[in-house]
């Protein structure tokens, strides 16, 4: 990654931006909206089925032994982030709309990324087997913990109604396909591995479908009309502050527990990142019946900021003497 291109949005982020623009100009209506929702639900199930089929059990077993590191990463992901979101609310919510800050709180409750956390850990010469284990486990735990955390955090902030039956919906729509993917892994795992570059487009296509459906519904209900430009600028600042504090928190945790450098790198990139691939489908389920465009907009901005910042950090770690 060159010095100049690392500051630019990646191609997928540009596709997401283009999808938001299309949904803003040509949102789905009526029968088109119903068809989009059906196709999106099928795509989400396929997405998590493939995640289950691709998950390498051997790498998970190899990394499971480092339980202190994993517990620290999970604590950063599912405890530190929600506490930061609640603690910063008096300071940061005035910069955005209440709906956007609900999206910030939802972001704080999400699991960590898988692919990018592992990729940055590898680039920075961290503990890659532990990164594979923690990131994969975080994604799976998020299916259970995220709806529970959203219920507690969002209800505590009195921002929006959330039903705890979202756990059951997520288990049906996300966990069941994931488990089926794991069960079918002995027969299709090799094929999935051979076609991983092709299947990347299934992942990205599923997310783009969810983004289009979510923003179509939100635009129809007045998302851009009710979201002033200063609130969008405030959201960028809010995401930047949240990421900076999470990075500092992970650095502090690594020092407190006296992890070696390779493990501190894994903690930094595993504990400070939030999953776009899991977050957008989860928003569609957890906030069913509501306009979720404002819920996922903070996540999309945070995703791009975390990629740019972590690319710089990984490059700095990679330059250290061997």
Q: What report would you give on this structure?
A:
By secondary structure, the chain is mainly α. The protein has one domain: Na+/H+ antiporter like fold (Up-down Bundle), CATH 1.20.1530.20. The chain contains 15 helices and no strands. Helix 14 packs antiparallel against helix 15. The longest helix has 30 residues. The chain is globular, with a radius of gyration of 19 Å. The relative contact order is 0.19. It comes from Bordetella genomosp. 7. InterPro entries: Na+/solute_symporter_sf, Put_Na-Bile_cotransptr. It holds the Pfam family SBF_like. Keywords: Membrane, Transmembrane, Transmembrane helix.
Lay out the secondary structure.
Elements: H1 11-25, H2 30-54, H3 57-63, H4 67-87, H5 89-92, H6 98-108, H7 115-123, H8 128-157, H9 166-194, H10 196-220, H11 223-226, H12 229-256, H13 261-271, H14 276-286, H15 293-318
């Amino acid at each position: 990654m060159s010095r100049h291109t690392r500051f630019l949005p990646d191609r997928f982020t540009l596709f997401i931006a283009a999808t938001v623009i299309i949904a803003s100009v040509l949102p789905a209506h009526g029968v088109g909206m119903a068809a989009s929702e059906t196709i999106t639900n099928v795509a989400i199930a396929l997405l998590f089925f493939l995640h289950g089929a691709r998950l390498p059990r051997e790498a998970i077993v190899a990394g499971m032994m480092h339980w202190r590191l994993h517990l620290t990463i999970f604590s950063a992901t599912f405890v530190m982030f929600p506490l930061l979101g609640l603690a910063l609310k008096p300071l940061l919510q005035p910069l955005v709309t209440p709906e956007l800050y609900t999206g910030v709180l939802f972001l704080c409750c999400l699991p960590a990324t898988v692919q990018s956390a592992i990729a940055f850990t590898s680039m920075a010469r961290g503990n890659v087997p532990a990164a594979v284990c923690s990131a994969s486990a975080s994604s799976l735990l998020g299916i259970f913990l995220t709806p529970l955390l959203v219920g507690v955090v969002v209800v505590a902030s009195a921002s929006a109604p959330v039903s705890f039956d979202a756990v059951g919906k997520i288990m049906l729509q996300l966990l069941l396909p994931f488990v089926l993917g794991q069960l079918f892994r002995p027969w299709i795992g090799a094929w999935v591995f051979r076609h991983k570059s092709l299947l990347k487009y299934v992942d990205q296509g599923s997310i783009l479908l969810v983004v289009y459906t979510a923003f179509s519904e939100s635009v129809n209900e007045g998302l851009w009309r009710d979201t002033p430009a200063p609130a969008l600028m405030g959201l960028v600042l809010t995401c930047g502050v949240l990421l900076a504090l999470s990075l500092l928190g992970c650095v502090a945790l690594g020092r407190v527990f006296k992890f070696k450098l390779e493990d501190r790198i894994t903690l930094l990139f595993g504990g400070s990142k939030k999953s776009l691939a899991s977050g957008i489908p989860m928003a569609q389920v957890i906030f069913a019946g509501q306009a979720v465009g404002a819920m996922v907009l903070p996540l999309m901005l945070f995703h791009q900021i975390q990629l740019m910042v972590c690319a710089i950090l990984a490059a700095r770690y990679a330059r250290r003497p061997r």
